[in-house]
Structure formats: structure tokens, C-alpha cells
Write a structure and sequence with these properties.
Rossmann fold; eight-stranded mixed sheet; 9 helices; AB_hydrolase_fold; two-stranded antiparallel ribbon; alpha/beta
């Protein structure tokens, strides 16, 4: 098999200025095979951008699905994060959480859409994240329903704070959500303690279903690592771009 068809691609680097974060944020932007500025494309926005590209092999997955399965070509925007500040930006309890969410909706997306032929309707924007990246992605969508209606979560850290936010909504039928969690994620060690991600995701699933969320929920053999998420990522890509 000629793997060079899947690994030969264009990924550009940008620095997005941010007043909310008082600086700039590095992003990588993947251009799909056959990219043409005269066309318009849906966009996959990824938290932990470096990890999604390096460990998730997101660009390779997308290229393979486009070339082999006729998946709709899409842009991928990978947003970098300083690992030392990740909890502060991605956790609802974090000191930079509100500022990061505003940066994402008010600065990052307009920056991308002013420079690339990205579609502007909310159904063409998908936000993806793993663990706390899934958390912040869901919160961004809940707080900006006019901009985002599709979220891809890989073992999201959906704890009490997030369920309280979901409970504020009466109707989430507008929200399309893909949730994946591993059956071995029952004692995940994090910087904030050890958590049963499987139970937390099940509880969050139940709450989302009471709000009529358009939900695809999957439990599979796997641990809280990229080795698990990488192999399952194409399922989420097919759901949103197939």
C-alpha cells in the first residue's frame, strides 16, 4: 500500500493574535487534497492541536478518508496549548477558561474565516477535543449555539461542573455530539485527582438524552490514551464529514 498518498499534505502555521489571552496563539491549518480557494470547506477545530496532529494522526486519517472513502474535504485547525496552562484554559474551574472560550469564538474562528475559504454556517464547524479538550469544546458550543452545533469528544472530562451547565438547557436537539469513552477508564489519574471517566460519561450521556441531544455515544475497549483515541477518530470524522 502506498502510504505516501496519505502522508503527503499541506499544513500551514499561523499565529492568531488574542486580546482575551493577551498574546498570540499558534495554530496549524491542514489543507485537504485538491484544495481550491474558489471552493468552500467545513472545518474541524481541534483543541490540543499538536496532539491531534502528532498522536491522533488527524491529518492522515482525514486524507485517507477523503481519498479512499469520498469523505467531504475539510480544513483542520489545530489550536496549540501550553501544557502548563491547559487546566486553567480547558477546565470550567480554570482561571483562564472564560478568556479561552471567548478567544475561540470571538478571535480564532473569525481569524480563520477571514483568511481561508471556510463555510460560515454552524453545521460546517466541528469542535473536537480529548479529555478536558472535550469539556471545553462542549462548553464553547453551549455558550455559542449560533456558531457551533457539532462536537466530537474523545473521553471527555465531563464532571459535575459540565453537567450543571447542561442542566441549564431545556432543549439540546440542535446539538450533534459524538462521545467516545473507554471501558478501562475507570480510574484515570489526572493532575486534579483520580476519576472514573466511564461513569462520568455515562451520567453525562443520560443527562444529554433528557435534553434530546442528537447523540452518538460509544463505549469501547480502551484506556485514557491517544493509542485508543487515534484508532477510533475516523468514526467521528465519518459522522460529521461523511
Amino acid at each position: 500500500m502506498d502510504d505516501t498518498r496519505y502522508t503527503k499534505r499541506t499544513i500551514l502555521k499561523e499565529e492568531v493574535p488574542s486580546g482575551h489571552l493577551s498574546g498570540t496563539r499558534n495554530v496549524k491549518i491542514y489543507l485537504p487534497p485538491g484544495y481550491n480557494e474558489l471552493l468552500t470547506y467545513p472545518v474541524l477545530y481541534c483543541q490540543d492541536g499538536e496532539d491531534f496532529f502528532n498522536f491522533g494522526r488527524t491529518a492522515t486519517h482525514m486524507t485517507k478518508l477523503i481519498l479512499d472513502e469520498g469523505l467531504e474535504p475539510a480544513l483542520i485547525v489545530g489550536v496549540d496549548v501550553d501544557k502548563k496552562l491547559r487546566n486553567e484554559e480547558y477546565s470550567p474551574q480554570g482561571s483562564r477558561f472564560a478568556s479561552y472560550c471567548r478567544f475561540f469564538a470571538e478571535e480564532l474562528v473569525p481569524y480563520v474565516e477571514s483568511r481561508y475559504p471556510a463555510r460560515r454556517e454552524r453545521s460546517a464547524r466541528v469542535i473536537a477535543g480529548d479529555s478536558l479538550g472535550g469539556t471545553v469544546s462542549l462548553h464553547i458550543a453551549l455558550d455559542n449555539p449560533d456558531m457551533f452545533s457539532r462536537v466530537l469528544s474523545l473521553s471527555g472530562a465531563f464532571f459535575a461542573d459540565t453537567r450543571e451547565r447542561i442542566a441549564e438547557e431545556n432543549d439540546l436537539s440542535w446539538l450533534q455530539l459524538y462521545m467516545l469513552v473507554g471501558l478501562q477508564e475507570t480510574a484515570v489519574e489526572t493532575s486534579r485527582g483520580t476519576f472514573d471517566f466511564l461513569d462520568e460519561n455515562r451520567r453525562t450521556q443520560e443527562l444529554l438524552e433528557t435534553r434530546e441531544t442528537d447523540l452518538v455515544y460509544e463505549e469501547k475497549d480502551g484506556r485514557h490514551v491517544w493509542g485508543f483515541w487515534q484508532n477510533e477518530l475516523p468514526t467521528g470524522l465519518r459522522l460529521f464529514f461523511g
